[in-house]
Fold:
Amino acid sequence: MISDSREPFDVLVVGGGPAGIAAAVRAAETGARVGIVDENFAPGGQIWRSRPSEQEHTKEASKWRTRLNASGVTVLCGKRVFHQPQPGVLLAEGLDDLRELSYRTLILATGARERFLPFPGWTLPNVTGAGGLQAMVKSGLPIRGKRVVVAGTGPLLLAVAAYLRKQGAEIPLICEQASWSRLTRFGRFLMQHPQKIAQGLLLKKGLRGIPFEANSWPVAAHGETHLEAVTISHGGQCGAIKCDYLACGFHLVPNTELAVLLGCRTAGGYVQVNEFQQTTMESIFCAGEPTGIGGVELALTEGQIAGLAAVDRNSEARTLFRAREKHRRFARMLDETFCLRPELKSLASPQTLVCRCEDVPYSRLQEHTSWRAAKLHTRCGMGPCQGRICGPATQFLFKWSPDSVRPPVFPARVENLAALPVPEQPIAEVTGGLQ
Amino acid sequence: MPDEVVVTVNGSQVAVPAGATVAVAMMMAGKPCRTSVTGEPRGPLCGMGICFECRAMVNGVPHSRSCQILCESGMDVKTND
Structure:
């Protein structure tokens, strides 16, 4: 049942990762009534997720968490926003409750997810995302003594490999699809940024002795009921490696579905914002990965700008523009370095499932020319994930773009959909013309 | 806080570290979370509530996203809901 008060938040933030925390804190510190709604157990998002027993892993994370605790922000965890019944009101579903949240200004900080590409065997249990496996280990999965091949693309692979090794995993190989020339250029760029050098050196220590291959990607995962081995392509040669897990993700894609549902315009797959992080909808701001994949520093900066601008502190927000520009250069470098090579388009065989919810193989999709046609004829993207996994894959494989987003933006329980307010226009009026 | 929590997966008891998710309990029990529409075994993929591969019956609630639910002592989990 709807259980929240109708008193609106001055600023409501969707997403409790770095961008959302920074936005909420800056807005609340000016005295505004601010709320964060997040679907995880605790704020921090994916990057600052930690095991209950673990210490905060960066000073930056603990600094922001302390500030959040002192800021008076209402933090609603374990609640997933799925619908906007009317402008200024969002509905969020928890495990056993439904919240109606009203706001004057909304900040979307919905983060990113991993991009997955289909290859034979990728649906076997224990083939997971790279960040996905890290999240599972942080959620209690014992990994000590397990062999984990880390594959795909992006700086996340290195962070995941270092983390898993620290937890006792054996990492026989990291395979990165990007070429050495791109990686070298990326490395040279990082050398110009002291903060990144420090991060890089720490990472290098954590990765010592782990084999790393560029120009390398998984071509098949093998096993009957679960993963037993993976075949890796490297420089035109293929070789199989026995492993317990394949942690495989191809960089990140932004979570823009809620923004699109609320009417915010996107460009090139990202939510369009002005210099104050304001979207094309006047009362909605957006910060962090949905406006461009740029990592934690950019997310924190954009979050602060959005939080300040949401409470009309534009001149204070302006002082962060230079820092944002610097971090955006890093974002552009990420895009260039880790863009997907065309060879990855031919990994799927005709029988390889592309849509894991509805088990639609590659061969059935080849018959179609658009995402919509494929959905209508094959049910691709029509399952519970609503195309969040196969959508980005088909975008890469077939250049299909997603079409409109419709409520509920996530699957919701029937009782919660049934609790939706009746349309404002009385039924008698609607049927009036027929009498 | 105890170090371990015991839950039931398909009738068998599984001890998991305190703070573990239900998805992890199924992985530790060696059970796939669900069977796909063409009969494939599936386990967790994204670990963050996006892919819905880890859905299972948790305390009688079907289609629960098990990676977003923490294990509680005595919890009853059934795969292939």
